[in-house]
Design a protein that fits this description.
alpha/beta, seven-stranded mixed β-sheet, five-stranded mixed β-sheet, globular
Length: about 375
């Protein structure tokens, strides 16, 4: 794979082994808890199933190639696969932050950052929080060990200036990790914007079929990667070989999927703005969205998630029940569109009628028609 190849070519070729006569282009998953191990184990590429696996290696090479900054060979990026996105998040946070140090988290990020904060505080770590929008985390960086950025934020879809925040954090001696789940490496490359870590849930758009749990961490610094790798080995947060193989297989369609999803999400967002009873429609690709100016500078693709607010809880639930092409389900990034009333989980500071929608690869006109019908039905049933 050449560094000059475009995205659609890169995702198809990423991480594949050299061609061999009569060998499959993508070797099947390697199921092994241990390997034949003569001699010094420190010289062995594979020794035990919790340390490394050839199927992980292929996926990690692929992810490293996609996350690499422009002009940097993929082999210079250390990518590590994990059993889930939260395993990857935990590995970075807990391998890099010690008791007595401070970490800056977004106050409007993924809701499992709340128990992460509680765990950090129980270990004697100072946790500071601020919203994503307006680069508000900048004011909390003095003396911090780690800045955690989630941009676009989930579920509110606010965006911050990653380059500016990263430069400021580094000037004050802090490391920077960016949750790149929503954007994917085809929409945004945090390492190119200066971040030390790019972290993502591969459960979402990276693999895109809603059939596996996976996470990854990518970074350029070998020492930082070593700390994350040791954490993975110590807590055993390793992916299964089948999951790793399915993820690598799914990468081949990443460009096709995310391009169609981004097109559909923008069409859906525009249509929702015109529907009665629908307010606060958010998508970074909308020119009128408050996040758009910053997103346009640092994102190449704006993602598949649209958020909006309906009049109340009952309206939102009637709307979701009336949808024909959109499943009522959590998560996002899959080929099938999903939506949910996010307030049902608790933990997110959103109105009761707030809906997070993940746009799949269905025809945008069909989705818009389905949404319009569901809004009309919910309004007609208003008590």
């Amino acid at each position: 794979m050449s560094r000059d190849d475009r995205d659609a070519t890169r995702v198809v070729r990423a991480g594949l082994p050299p061609e061999e006569p009569y060998a499959p282009p993508l070797p099947g998953p390697v199921f092994a808890a241990h390997y034949h191990l003569p001699g010094d184990p420190h010289d062995a590429p594979y020794a035990y199933g919790r340390d490394a696996n050839p199927t992980w290696t292929a996926l990690e090479r692929a992810v490293g190639a996609l996350e690499a900054p422009t002009g940097v060979p993929g082999e210079q990026v250390h990518a590590l696969a994990f059993a889930s996105g939260m395993a990857a998040i935990s590995a970075v946070v807990f391998s890099q932050v010690r008791p007595g140090e401070a970490v800056v988290l977004p106050s409007d990020g993924y809701n499992l950052l709340v128990p992460t904060r509680e765990r950090l505080e129980s270990l004697g770590v100072e946790v500071r929080t601020a919203p994503t929008g307006g680069d508000a985390q900048r004011e909390l960086l003095d003396g911090a060990r780690l800045l955690w950025i989630e941009s676009p934020s989930n579920p509110g879809l606010d965006v911050c200036d990653i380059r500016a925040l990263t430069d400021e954090a580094h000037a004050r001696g802090a490391l920077v990790a960016v949750d790149n789940t929503l954007a994917t490496p085809l929409g945004q490359r945090p390492l190119e914007l200066g971040a030390d870590f790019s972290v993502a849930s591969g459960t979402k758009a990276l693999t895109g079929h809603g059939d596996l749990l996976l996470g990854y961490v990518a970074c350029q610094d070998a020492a930082l990667a070593g700390g994350v790798r040791l954490w993975r080995k110590t807590v055993g947060a390793v992916p299964g070989p089948m999951e790793a193989w399915l993820a690598h297989r799914s990468l081949a369609t990443l460009e096709l999927r995310t391009r169609q999803q981004a097109t559909g999400a923008l069409a859906v967002a525009r249509a929702l703005r015109e529907l009665p009873g629908v307010t606060d429609v958010r998508h970074p690709g909308l020119p009128e969205d408050p996040s758009h100016p910053v997103a346009a500078r640092q994102m190449r693709r704006y993602g598949c998630v649209v958020s909006f607010t309906l009049p109340d809880k009952g309206f939102a639930e009637r709307f979701l029940a009336a949808l024909r092409l959109v499943d009522d389900a959590t998560s996002f990034g899959g080929v099938r569109s999903t939506a949910e009333r996010r307030g049902r989980w608790g933990g997110d500071a959103v109105p009761e009628g707030f809906v997070r929608m993940s746009v799949g690869v269905e025809d945008p006109e069909d989705l818009v028609a389905d949404l319009r019908h569901a809004v009309e039905h919910a309004a007609a049933q208003q008590e």
